[in-house]
C-alpha cells in the first residue's frame, strides 16, 4: 500500500512474499481494525518511508520475521493489538519514529528480543504486556530512546530490559 486513507476491517492477511502488509510512503495513512495477519514468510506488518496510520485490535501471529516493523519517519498509532509466535520477535523499531503503542500484548515471540529498539530508534509504549519471549523482553540499542510507561514485562527467558551503551530509554 503506497497511497491513500482507507479503512480495512475484519480481514485476514497471509503472504508467501516479503511481508503480509507493507505500508509505505508519506501519503499512505490507512486504518486497520480487527484484522488477522498470519503465517507470513517475513514480517507480518511493515510501516516504512514516512507512512502513517492506525492499527487497532488486530492479531499478528506465526510470521517468520517480526510481527511489526516500523522504520524512520513513520507516524503510526497501534492500540490493543496482539502479536505472538513470530520467529524474529514481536516488534522492531528502526530509526526515529513517532509511533505509539497503547495496550498491546506481545507474547511467545522468538528472536533476541520481543521488542527491539534498534540503534537510533525511538517510540512510546504504554500499558503493554511483553511476556514469555525466547530472548529479552526489550533490547534498547545504542542511541535508541523512547518512553516505556506502565508496561508489564515478565517471564522472558532473558532479562526484562537490556539497555546498551548510550541508550536513553525512560522507564
Give structural notes.
With 171 residues, the protein is an all-beta fold. It contains no helices and 22 strands. The chain has strands spanning 7-9, 12-13, 19-24, 31-33, 36-38, 43-48, 52-56, 59-61, 66-71, 75-79, 82-84, 89-94, 96-102, 105-107, 113-117, 122-126, 129-131, 136-140, 145-149, 152-154, 161-163, 168-170. An 8-stranded parallel β-sheet has the order 1-4-7-10-13-16-19-22, with no helix packed on it. A 7-stranded parallel β-sheet has the order 2-5-8-11-14-17-20, with no helix packed on it. Strands 3-6-9-12-15-18-21 form a 7-stranded parallel β-sheet, with no helix packed on it. The model has no long low-confidence stretch (mean pLDDT 94).
Summarize the structure.
The chain is about 0% helix and about 55% strand.
List the helices and strands and how they pair.
Layout: E1 7-9, E2 12-13, E3 19-24, E4 31-33, E5 36-38, E6 43-48, E7 52-56, E8 59-61, E9 66-71, E10 75-79, E11 82-84, E12 89-94, E13 96-102, E14 105-107, E15 113-117, E16 122-126, E17 129-131, E18 136-140, E19 145-149, E20 152-154, E21 161-163, E22 168-170
Parallel strand pairs: 1-4, 2-5, 3-6, 4-7, 5-8, 6-9, 7-10, 8-11, 9-12, 10-13, 11-14, 12-15, 13-16, 14-17, 15-18, 16-19, 17-20, 18-21, 19-22
Amino acid at each position: 500500500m503506497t497511497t491513500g486513507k482507507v479503512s480495512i476491517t475484519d480481514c485476514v492477511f497471509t503472504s508467501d512474499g516479503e511481508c503480509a502488509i507493507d505500508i509505505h510512503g508519506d501519503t499512505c495513512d490507512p486504518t486497520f481494525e480487527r484484522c488477522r495477519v498470519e503465517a507470513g514468510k517475513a514480517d507480518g506488518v511493515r510501516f516504512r518511508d514516512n507512512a502513517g496510520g492506525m492499527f487497532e485490535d488486530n492479531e499478528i501471529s506465526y510470521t517468520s520475521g517480526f510481527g511489526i516493523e516500523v522504520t524512520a519517519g513513520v507516524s503510526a498509532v497501534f492500540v490493543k493489538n496482539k502479536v505472538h509466535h513470530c520467529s524474529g520477535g514481536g516488534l522492531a523499531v528502526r530509526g526515529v519514529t513517532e509511533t505509539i503503542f497503547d495496550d498491546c500484548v506481545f507474547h511467545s515471540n522468538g528472536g533476541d528480543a520481543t521488542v527491539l529498539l534498534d540503534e537510533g530508534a525511538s517510540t512510546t509504549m504504554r500499558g503493554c504486556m511483553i511476556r514469555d519471549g525466547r530472548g529479552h523482553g526489550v533490547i534498547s540499542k545504542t542511541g535508541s530512546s523512547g518512553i516505556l510507561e506502565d508496561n508489564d514485562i515478565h517471564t522472558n527467558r532473558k532479562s526484562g530490559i537490556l539497555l546498551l551503551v548510550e541508550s536513553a530509554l525512560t522507564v
